[in-house]
Amino acid sequence: MLLQDHVALVTGSGRGIGRAIAQLFAQEGAAVMLTARSESELRSATDELTRAGHRAACAVADLSQEAECRKIAAAARAQFGKITILVNNAGHYGPISPIEEYPLAEFDAVLNIHLRASFLLTQLVLPEMYARNSGVILNISSLSAKSAFPWGCAYAAAKAGLLGLTRTTAAESARKGVRANALCPGPVTETRMSQELGATLAKRMGVSEEEQLKGFLNSLLQGRAQTTAEIARAALFLCSDQSSAITGQSINIDGGAAFF
Ligand SMILES: NC(=O)c1ccc[n+]([C@@H]2O[C@H](COP(=O)([O-])OP(=O)(O)OC[C@H]3O[C@@H](n4cnc5c(N)ncnc54)[C@H](OP(=O)(O)O)[C@@H]3O)[C@@H](O)[C@H]2O)c1
Predict the structure, then answer these.
(1) Which of 66, 115, 139, 191 gets mutated to test ligand 1 (max ligand atoms within 8 A of its CB)?
(2) Quick check: CB of 194 below 6 Å from ligand 1?
(3) Ligand 1: distance of its center to the CA of 69 in Å?
(4) Is the CB of 142 under 6 A from ligand 1?
(5) pTM for this one?
(6) For 160-175, how does the pLDDT look when each residue is reduced to its tens digit (9 = 90+)?
(7) Span 202-206, mean pLDDT?
(8) For ligand 1, atom 34, which residue shows the shortest CA distance?
(9) Is residue 98 assigned to a domain?
(10) Is residue 253 part of a domain?
(11) Which domain holds residue 46?
């Protein structure tokens, strides 16, 4: 098992990519702290893990609030004694809107969850990682950080900002035993965020959801969507010793779309 003796705090783990990461990390021996706002999803994801004999616990938190970030880090330590892996995954896409119409409050909300919460949680876990001279931080960014799509300025800015945060974290922490990396998934069409985005984009473009999806997937070399399991496997690689010399990087899992 690749994550024996680790404690992973995985944000946004009630469903989608975060849930798949929590599941794989638990299967690989980590104790997992799950968190999101929806209690029923969180409870179901956590129960699934504990029923299978894994170590898992959950706490409801809205990570766009500073106090809730502190609460979840404290809850993970209270439950499992330490945090050795942080996965910043929680977030939503925000409005599908041109910049000139994009509501400021929504812009702030998107930045708050993707970028500010990741910064806050990183700030909260680094001291204990430095004290142990080991730890891993993984930020879930996006193809949107590296490509050019219309109507999602806050999301793209937040995800690009996350790559900057990743590199700065890596630069500060590399000689203190900590690694920080990012994943840039392309369309993971099985998740709620992706499905809601597809539906809204199709409406805006005046095409069917099938046409919108087909057109987008056609722009990827592999011509297909990525799966939550594929993202989780890359997350496992970056959070385990298998990637012990990799830090400050962003890895694209997009079926061939971005090439830097
Ligand atoms: N799906 C894709 O195509 C794709 C591609 C590239 C990157 N990503 C990134 O992957 C990550 C996961 O997305 P997903 O596709 O798995 O979406 P999802 O199924 O909608 O999951 C998002 C998770 O984040 C949680 N969350 C959202 N806002 C939160 C908040 N304020 N506080 C705490 N938790 C919050 C959600 O739970 P609650 O709503 O219950 O809080 C949920 O558990 C996101 O960062 C997304 O940007 C996704």
Answers:
(1) 191
(2) yes
(3) 16
(4) yes
(5) 0.99
(6) 999 999 999 999 999 9
(7) 95
(8) 36
(9) yes
(10) no
(11) 7-186+228-247
Task: Determine contact, residues 10/222, Cβ cutoff 8 Å.
Answer: no
For the segment 119-134, what is each residue's pLDDT rounded down to a tens digit? 999 999 999 999 999 9
Summarize pLDDT for 47-56 with one digit per residue, the tens.
999 999 999 9
Q: Which atom of ligand 1 is nearest to the CA of 143?
A: 6
Are 178 and 95 contained in the same domain? yes
14 lines ligand 1 (CB under 6 A): yes
Can you tell me which atom of ligand 1 is nearest the CA of 11? 34
* Nearest-angstrom CA–CA distance, 32 and 122: 17
| pLDDT (0 to 100) of residue 246 | 99
DSSP reduced 3-state for 85: strand
Task: Residue 132: give its domain's CATH number.
Answer: 3.40.50.720
Q: For residue 63, give every residue at least 6 positions away whose Cβ sits within 8 Å of its Cβ, in sequence order, or none.
A: 11, 35, 69, 72, 90, 113, 117, 120, 121
210 and 101 within one domain: no
> 86 and 205 share a domain?
no
Q: Region 85-103: what's the mean pLDDT? A: 98
Q: Decide if 102 is catalytic.
A: no
Instruction: Encode pLDDT of 178-187 as tens digits.
Output: 999 999 999 9
Q: Whose CA is nearest to atom 17 of ligand 1?
A: 193
Q: Which residues contact 173 (CB under 8 A, 6 or more apart)?
A: 126, 129, 130, 135, 137, 179, 180, 247
* Residues 239, 171 share a domain: yes
Q: Name the residue with the closest Cα to ligand 1, atom 8.
A: 142
Considering the domain boundaries, does residue 152 fall inside one? yes
Dihedral angle sign, alpha carbons of residues 28, 30, 35, 39: positive
